[in-house]
Amino acid sequence: MTMNLEQLRGFLEVARVGHFTRAAESLHLTQPSLSRQIATLEHDLGSELFHRARGHITLTAAGETLLPLARRMLADAETVRREMAELAGLQRGRVRLGATPTLCVSIVADAVSAFHAAHPGIELHLTERGSRGLIDELSSGALDLALVITSDAHPATAPSLTRSRLLTEELVVVGGGDAPFGGRTSVTLKDLAGMPQIVFPSSYDLRGTLDEAFRAAGLMPKVVLEGAEMDAVLRFVELGMGVALVPAMVLGDRPGLRSVRLTEPRLSRTISLARRQDVQPTRAAAAMHRMILRTADALAAGDRGLGGLVSRAG
């Protein structure tokens, strides 16, 4: 069998767009050349990979089986290419980091800015997505590292991955000044249910945590706006539309906001760093890994005024 990377790239692109001509254009090939690549691949594998209907191409069972393997093989080849280029001094490296949206405005911003200051020649790529989507991308080889939200109920991992628990972060209720809280320094979940709330999209891990807490307590929240992203949520809160449950680290320097602790129950989340355990990280990715660990240590030590709200996870 003489399967090669060009054949796999052609196979993946046809599978992605469902059309030989469009796939050939995307790959800067002629359509007959791409068709020959796929035909040779099918001959070498002894199986048809596509159902060829006029104007529409779909994967056969053999094609469905090959799809994740082809993605992994190309990702591994790219890792080898980048590592060899680093060793040869052809480039200074690249890091593909994934993180959930709420982490991108806290630990990721701190770690990436410090990393860039220390290693300005390393190319950085950041993917924002929910934890489940990041785990899928990490498993397929599209990411080097991912910062995800994990719990005992939702471990957010896969057999090919290893994860390290970094931080435990308390979730706090934030409002526009003192008015929503009436001088209180904490509120209960029942109190929160009666307040007008700005809530995140259902795809947010944080939203799932809050929804589960309300269901378990038999409470119905009073939602006034749903679906906003983090920056918009905080701005709506500043404008007095309602309160929101947010991770402690995202508040930063926002004098128009006041946060109080949530009690009965107290809610928190665990931030973990995940990577593939079957692939040796590049030197650039290993350097980013170390920077993230140092940033987590600084946050847990209270360097940003978060004492008691953020701690190192065991």
Automatic annotation (TrEMBL):
The keyword Transcription appears for this protein: yes
Domain HTH lysR-type: 3-60
UniProt xrefs under Pfam families: HTH_1, LysR_substrate
Annotated keywords: DNA-binding, Transcription, Transcription regulation
Domain of life: Bacteria
UniProt similarity note: Belongs to the LysR transcriptional regulatory family.
Protein's name according to its UniProt entry: LysR family transcriptional regulator
Lineage: Bacteria, Bacillati, Actinomycetota, Actinomycetes, Micrococcales
